[in-house]
């Protein structure tokens, strides 16, 4: 299935608390060309299906994968900053600032 099909069927699976979220880290589980399970993560705006679909499509194109082998999608983290600031936010969080 595609990203959009999985979300329509299963909705967003949450593995973290979503509160005051301005971006979220999403894990996409899919099958590689050898039909072996694999996964990748993307940082997106909250619940932005189109952004996730585009990012996964580009990832698949760059790696020679088909983009219709998605098995599961779940949110693994939520952040109070927009996606482009997540690396800085995580660094400050590690430093205790």
Q: How would you explain this protein's 3D organization?
A:
- The protein has 97 residues and is of the alpha+beta class.
- The chain has one domain (3-95): Ubiquitin-like (UB roll) (Roll), CATH 3.10.20.
- Helices cover 34% and strands 30% of the residues.
- It is built from 3 helices and 4 strands.
- It has helices spanning 3-10, 49-63, 86-95; strands at 13-14, 23-31, 37-44, 70-79.
- A 4-stranded mixed sheet has the order 1-4-2-3, with helices on one face.
- A hairpin with a 5-residue loop joins strand 2 (23-31) and strand 3.
- The protein is globular, with a radius of gyration of 14 Å.
- The relative contact order is 0.28.
- The model has no long low-confidence stretch (mean pLDDT 89).
Q: Report strand order across the widest sheet.
A: 1-4-2-3
* Total number of domains: 1
Percent strand equals 25-35%
Secondary structure class reads: alpha+beta
Net shape = globular
Mean pLDDT score, rounded?
Answer: 89
Q: What's the CATH topology name?
A: Ubiquitin-like (UB roll)
Number of DSSP E strands: 4
Work out the helicity level: 25-40%
DSSP summary: helix tally = 3
The major sheet is characterized as:
4 strands, mixed
Secondary-structure element pattern, one letter each: HEEEHEH
Cα radius of gyration in angstroms: 14 Å
Reading off the top of the CATH hierarchy, the class is best stated as Alpha Beta
State the distance separating the first and last CA atoms: 42 Å
Low-confidence stretches: none
CATH architect. name: Roll
């Amino acid at each position: 299935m595609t990203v959009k099909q999985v979300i329509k069927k299963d909705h967003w699976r949450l593995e973290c608390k979503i509160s005051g979220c301005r971006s979220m880290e999403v894990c996409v589980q899919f099958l590689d060309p050898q039909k072996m399970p694999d996964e990748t993560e993307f940082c997106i705006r909250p619940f932005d299906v189109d952004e996730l679909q585009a990012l996964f499509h580009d990832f698949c194109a760059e790696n020679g994968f088909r983009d219709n082998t998605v098995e599961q999608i779940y949110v693994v983290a939520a952040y109070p900053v927009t996606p482009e600031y997540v690396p800085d936010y995580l660094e400050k969080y590690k430093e205790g600032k």
